TrEMBL record:
<protein>
    <recommendedName>
        <fullName>Glutamine--fructose-6-phosphate aminotransferase [isomerizing]</fullName>
        <ecNumber>2.6.1.16</ecNumber>
    </recommendedName>
</protein>
<dbReference type="GO" id="GO:0004360">
    <property type="term" value="F:glutamine-fructose-6-phosphate transaminase (isomerizing) activity"/>
</dbReference>
<dbReference type="GO" id="GO:0006002">
    <property type="term" value="P:fructose 6-phosphate metabolic process"/>
</dbReference>
<dbReference type="GO" id="GO:0006047">
    <property type="term" value="P:UDP-N-acetylglucosamine metabolic process"/>
</dbReference>
<feature type="domain" description="SIS">
    <location>
        <begin position="46"/>
        <end position="185"/>
    </location>
</feature>
<comment type="function">
    <text>Catalyzes the first step in hexosamine metabolism, converting fructose-6P into glucosamine-6P using glutamine as a nitrogen source.</text>
</comment>
<keyword id="KW-0963">Cytoplasm</keyword>
<dbReference type="GO" id="GO:0005975">
    <property type="term" value="P:carbohydrate metabolic process"/>
</dbReference>
<keyword id="KW-0032">Aminotransferase</keyword>
<keyword id="KW-0677">Repeat</keyword>
<dbReference type="GO" id="GO:0097367">
    <property type="term" value="F:carbohydrate derivative binding"/>
</dbReference>
<dbReference type="GO" id="GO:0005829">
    <property type="term" value="C:cytosol"/>
</dbReference>
<feature type="active site" description="For Fru-6P isomerization activity">
    <location>
        <position position="365"/>
    </location>
</feature>
<feature type="domain" description="SIS">
    <location>
        <begin position="219"/>
        <end position="360"/>
    </location>
</feature>
<dbReference type="GO" id="GO:0046349">
    <property type="term" value="P:amino sugar biosynthetic process"/>
</dbReference>
<dbReference type="GO" id="GO:0006487">
    <property type="term" value="P:protein N-linked glycosylation"/>
</dbReference>
<keyword id="KW-0315">Glutamine amidotransferase</keyword>
Length: 370
């Protein structure tokens, strides 16, 4: 096992550090920047289904559901196809309206999650075209879908998903750009600039890992006694906030809640005092001014702010108690980049609390029962 961990203390840390490679592997053979194309046979063979779909319904559980939420932002923005994102367990039990004009995408690392599988079967019975985004090759979900794209993240052993999540985001980004280019919503110049930016994401993740590895350990030390955490973000980074909070609660057992930053005033603000740590994702592109006022509201109530900002940021950084810098990207890529230091922060808080990060209590890597 020590050998499999490749010198890292836990699989989770190894998998966090593998992300430049896993994202690269997921894009390999698909993203051909020099030729200006995205090659995805699963999408291309059925592109008319997607193009003419009434809507795309994404179904998933856990971390994969968070990837799905970001997929909604991506596909609606770039391909202009309406998207709904559903928890598989809710979808299957509420007599959903599905027709043969719908495309259903299931996202699942393991490809074995019982609720996702059952929801897919239901969609298939009702005539929808079903598409899979799985990490495990030849898994049950991969086998029953009409078509799909594998995330080539490699085996993920840590129960808390890290590299599978960023690989799912990579696939969803490729799908959104490919469909947008095909249906004419994404012009050639913008397409070209987005794909070259995507191509450079693995390098940016590498930089983020080296720039934040020690820093997140320092920050983690100050919060080992915390009992609650709030994670806030807007737009693309709202689901990234949900995922940041999920990582922390899964492995450290600290209660953490993710929220859209603007919704803070409809509830969570009542909880803010000097004992409440608040992680806020505040990149330059993405409602930055609004986030600045959210941070002001938090500081007025003495909350402890851990801000994830772009390099060179001033306004939020001046107010924050802790600052984590990430490189600037187009808004659609910021959840991939911002998630990395949040994974590290959750990891180190859990490690310093003595938790078993690879196998947290009560959780399973793949939930094959209801
Ligand atoms: C479990 C795992 C999570 C995962 C979820 C969905 O809860 O602990 O890490 O996100 O199942 O799993 P899937 O394999 O369908 O992505």
């Amino acid at each position: 096992e020590q050998i499999e961990k490749g010198g890292y203390e836990h699989f989770m840390l190894k998998e966090i550090f593998e992300q430049p490679k896993s994202i690269h592997d997921t894009m390999r053979g698909r993203l051909l920047v020099d030729e200006g194309v995205i090659k995805m046979a699963g999408i291309w063979d059925h592109v008319e289904k997607f193009k003419n779909a009434n809507r795309i319904i994404i179904i998933a559980c856990g971390t994969s559901w968070h990837a799905g939420l970001i997929g909604e932002y991506l596909i609606e923005e770039y391909a202009r196809i309406p998207v709904e994102v559903e928890y598989a367990s809710e979808f299957r039990y509420r007599n959903p309206i599905i027709t043969d004009k719908d495309v259903v995408i299931a996202i699942s690392q393991s490809g074995e999650t019982a609720d996702t599988m059952a929801a897919l079967k239901l969609a298939k019975e009702k005539g929808a075209f079903i598409y899979g985004i799985c990490n495990v090759v030849d898994s049950s979900i991969a086998r029953i879908t009409d078509a799909g794209s594998y995330t080539h993240a490699g085996p993920e052993i840590g129960v808390a998903s890290t590299k599978a999540f960023t690989a799912q985001l990579t696939i969803l980004t490729l799908i959104a750009f490919k469909l947008g280019k095909h249906n004419g919503n994404l012009g050639n110049a913008e397409f070209m600039s987005l794909i070259s930016e995507l191509d450079a994401i693995p390098k940016k993740i590498e930089d983020v890992l080296s720039a934040t590895h020690e820093l997140t350990q320092e920050i983690a030390k100050d919060f080992i006694g915390a009992t609650n955490f709030l994670y806030l973000g807007r737009g693309y980074n709202y689901p990234a906030a949900l995922e940041g909070a999920l990582k922390l609660k899964e492995i450290s057992y600290i209660h953490a809640e993710g929220y859209p930053a603007a919704e803070m005033k409809h509830g969570p603000i009542a909880l803010i005092d000097e004992n409440m740590p608040i992680v806020i994702i505040a990149p330059k592109k993405g409602h930055y001014d609004k986030i600045v006022s959210n941070v002001q509201e938090i500081k007025a109530r003495k909350g402890k702010v851990i801000a994830v900002v772009n390099k060179g940021d001033q306004q939020v950084s001046a107010m924050a108690d802790y600052v984590i810098e990430i490189p600037e990207t187009s808004e659609c890529f910021s959840p991939i980049v911002a998630s990395v230091p949040l994974q590290l922060l959750a990891y180190y808080i859990a490690v310093y609390r003595g938790a078993n990060v690879d196998q947290p209590r009560n959780l399973a890597k793949s939930v094959t029962v209801e």
